[in-house]
Amino acid sequence: MSSSPRTAVATVEELQSRYAEVNPVVNAVCTPNPAALTEAARLDTERDDGRVRGPLHGLPVLVKDNIDTADLPTTAGSLALAGQPPPPYDAPLVRRLREAGCVVLGKTNLSEWANFRGSASSSGWSAYGGLTRNPYALNRSAGGSSSGSGAAVAAGLADLAIGTETNGSIVCPAALNGIVGLKPTVGLIPQQGIIPLSHSQDTAGPMTRTVRQAAALLTVMTGGGTDYESYCRGEDLSGVRIGVPRGPLWGYSLGLDRLTEEAIGMLSAAGATIVDGLSLPSPGSEEDQLAILAHEMKVDLAAYLASRRPGGPRTLADVIAFNRAHADVELRYFGQDLFERSEQTDGLDSAVYVAARLSALRAGRDGIDTLLRDNQLDALVTPSYSPAWAIDLINGDHVLGSSSSHAALAGYPLLAVPSGLVEGLPVGITFSGTGRSDATLIRLAHAFETARIKAHGPFPTPEFRQWV
What we know:
It contains 16 helices and 15 strands. The chain is of the alpha/beta class. It has a single domain (8-286, 354-456), classed as Amidase signature (AS) domain (Amidase signature (AS) enzymes), CATH 3.90.1300.
């Protein structure tokens, strides 16, 4: 990815002007960085002195508000953390971004506690940040839980943003907002300094306008050992075998299915061998999936809260009590039944947890790896998520379908890239594969992106209107 042709100061000033115009409409950024211009000026001075840190030098980036920043609050969207001092240190991934020369523009809103507080939640809402709206349809969801990062990139508030995912929280808002979202293999990026939900599934990842930008960000976030941008090699997919698992990942949106069929045709035209008519096993029971998250949430959150400065909550029980004491705001739209379930768990040695985790690994890793091996595949391609559903703060989300659960349970990578519009609403396709196949997915997604732009032009920009 080439460096910005303008100064960092000019770029930040332009984005701050855009923020003043657009953010009141979409509410994607919850905490702007008042020092962004100062940071940009320092990086411009370094460039003038011949000290360029790399291809991201001077480029602005937005960071999801569950990732630690030592100079800005980190709240997970909760008032329980909103009044606390910022964390004592940057998360390792934020430190790497700064060391690469990125300007942290601010923090993006999210579904509170990464969408694991109440089962009737509305994606994109938090007590601290309010409601994030989809720039393509202001009365439709921006997805979750990285709603602010997805909406911010779509709305032109930054080309680069960071989200986090446990199960769909990057690829969902990427698909709904018409941007690229890369959920890396779990463990590829350090988990330290990220408010946790599940250590077996959580990861941060890039959310960007293009696949190339996502690859460049991933290179920095993983420590620079692999140049992921070098895998953006054009359209030729000769020798690549891509599987199409039909069940149970299709059939919930006719418009989405139609655009996905067109995308598969483009991949074939680029030289890929398409192996169709496949099927993944069921991702297992919803009860097992919830059991994993509930057990890990209680343990992992306590470990994280111990790293924060004194004065705030130290356990999940503390957060539950805070929410009850501030129910008029925190529990206005939905409750905290998932928190309460998590609080009742009895540790990671529990037989319930161990059994659920083994079941998840069989459904996720064995399911994906068996399909890849038996059919000699490099990757899989599926529809991403149903088009954005209407915002309903009273009854919660109405998701028709998705394709993230198998990879979530396995800890394997996903890469969502826009495929088109269904009645004006963005949709995408998702590439998936085995563990640490991130570079392969980048190659495939970039080839598709190149072919789609050649056929249809740049992806349409949002009009900030109500969808009817």
